[in-house]
Amino acid sequence: MLTAAMSTRAVSREFNVHFSTISRLQRRFREFGSTSNRPHNRRPCVTTPAQDLHIQHLHLQDHLRPATRTAAATIGLHNQRISAQTVRNHIREAHLRARRPHWGLDLTSVRRRNRLEWANAHIRWRDVLHCVRQMVVTPDTDWFLDQIYILLF
């Protein structure tokens, strides 16, 4: 509208806003080439939007990839290294989850078998205790409780 030889005041009347709003938008467009891309007083971005997309694609391809490995492989603006926390923040903004390396014992076949046996024993134990709690103790049930005790222990 401004390029169609309309005055600033005519455009502001058309959109029902103050004329200074239109003149401010016009000046911003002249200076920066866009009305949305303007200077701000928040912390400057370390990565470009293209690098953000690249980080997202890496984590979509390999969802177990740790953020530290992505940070080491990505160089930010002005040849700065980016931190793993920055990668985690960018991934979280994209509604993805950053994985952290596994800290703990690796499950060997022996450990896995031992854990399975323990879990099976305790599942049975829990079920038996649940049944026993529902029973009414009488002289007849004492024999039954002794048999359960022998089975469990």
UniProtKB/TrEMBL annotation:
Signal peptide: none
The organism's place on the tree of life at top rank: Eukaryota
UniProt-listed InterPro entries: Homeodomain-like_sf (IPR009057), Transposase_Tc1-like (IPR002492)
Listed GO biological process terms: DNA integration; DNA transposition
Any GO MF annotation of the entry: DNA binding
Entry protein name: Transposase Tc1-like domain-containing protein
One Pfam family in the UniProt entry: HTH_Tnp_Tc3_2
Sequence ranges assigned to domain Transposase Tc1-like in this UniProt record: 79-123
Organism the protein comes from: Sander lucioperca (Pike-perch)
